[in-house]
Amino acid sequence: MNMLKIGKTTFVTLVLLTAFAVTAVIGGCSSSTTGIGIVDMNKVMAENPKVQQLQEQLNTTGKTMSEQLEKDKASMTPEEFQKTQEKSYTEFMKTKQSLEAQVDASVKKALEQIAKEKNLGVILYKNGVAQGGIDITDEVKQKMQ
């Protein structure tokens, strides 16, 4: 039952897109900022205990739901099973979105704080920058804990 498993790439992509939107807002709202920050979001997502905890929570939820469905399958008609499966999937997706929103909020808060503290007008993703900028990856990880 693979429908309950979140893809790590999808999760990271969603977080990166949100972080990019945040950096665009930060960059556009402040005229007195001068620096350019660089953040390695792959490293932040892979090494941050809070993100790992939320991912584990999502995996546990998916596994529990999947096991319950398999347990109940024998006592259901195929139609009942399909309805229950769809309901479980919808519930799982709501949980997933909630956890992703928590990560997004944590990233946004960390980026805003660091941008203000370091007088950064723009924060870019490290994988898109050949050289230059102030690497704030470790600070983002610390502020997200």
Describe it for me?
The chain is mainly alpha-helical and 145 residues long. It has one domain: 2-Layer Sandwich (Protein Binding, DinI Protein, Chain A), CATH 3.30.910. It contains 5 helices and 3 strands. The chain has a 3-stranded parallel β-sheet. Helix 2 packs parallel to helix 5. The longest helix has 41 residues. The radius of gyration is 19 Å and the shape is rod-shaped. The N terminus is likely disordered.
Biggest sheet details = 3 strands, parallel
What fraction strand? 5-15%
Query: Which stretches of 5+ consecutive residues score pLDDT under 50?
Result: 1-5
CATH fold-level label: Protein Binding, DinI Protein, Chain A
The top-level CATH class is Alpha Beta
Mean pLDDT: 82
Q: Can you identify the CATH superfamily? A: Skp domain
Principal-axis shape equals rod-shaped
Strand adjacency order, main sheet: 2-1-3
Order of helical and strand elements: HEHHHEEH
Number of domains: 1
Beta strands, count? 3
Number of contiguous helices: 5
- Approximately how much helix is present in the residues? over 70%
- By secondary-structure content and strand pairing, the structural class works out as mainly alpha
Quaternary structure type: single chain
- The CATH architecture term is 2-Layer Sandwich
User: Distance between the terminal alpha carbons, to the nearest Å?
Assistant: 32 Å
Radius of gyration equals: 19 Å
